[in-house]
Model the fold of this input.
Amino acid sequence: MQPERKSRELRTARVSRRPPRFAATVMALGIIFAVAYVFVLRTPPPVPTPEIQGMQGTYTWQAQAQGATGVPRETGFFSAVASGAAGGQMTMENTAPRAGTFGKAQSAYNVERRTETTVESASTAVGARDVQTHSVGTWPPVWRVATRSPLDYQGLAAIVRAAAEDGDRSIGIKPIKEGDRKVWRAAMKLDGKDVELVVDQLTGIVVWYTDGRSTFTATVDWSSPPPADETYVVKVPAGQKVTTKTDETFSYERSPAAAGLAAG
Done:
């Protein structure tokens, strides 16, 4: 017998004597390695920690049609900084006949005084509405403006971010890009409602939200944030009635009167 032929026969004999479970073992080891590669060696990038010192932009809020009551719609401007100061403007329209078809509001929050000042007006027979100033005590003591902004939805943004970080499949999350921004498109059920929203990954800011009853859309000017020390002021028209409200549910070191900060 030739040496090469004999060598092939010996190798064939050795292979045929391997136990039948050998192939299954090799396959199992391959599966384990593949799983380890996906979940350990090939770990997805970490969820970014939200970081933002200030933001500003415009928004639109649109309610769904409600029969004879019309369709309320708002357009406005928002601005806020990390210190807690904020400001905003809003214009509201309503398509219903004989409704208070037009209204405006300006609102500002002074974080040092912990006061919110809002000036509202409407095109009704009643005329201008009261100016309301909310002084120390209202919680939380930051960004308390009467107009809308993406910060109104930060609780939902935190839920989406935590779900993305933990791999929570009870909340539907899809990472996508909108322009040059990475965002999460998320869907969840909240209080019996189907809620959808879009969260900017880098800042944690909600740029779109809908719950089947209303839709909020924000256009953030990412390239031009307000200065970190920005302050916001709303001037009360001369002679207009001012209503002051104080909520001392949460107490501070001193009362507004003792601190000399009470609004007059």
Q: What stands out?
A: The CA atoms of residues 61 and 216 lie 5 Å apart. The chain has one domain: 54-222+240-259. The domain at 54-222+240-259 is CATH 2.50.20 (outer membrane lipoprotein receptor (LolB), chain A).
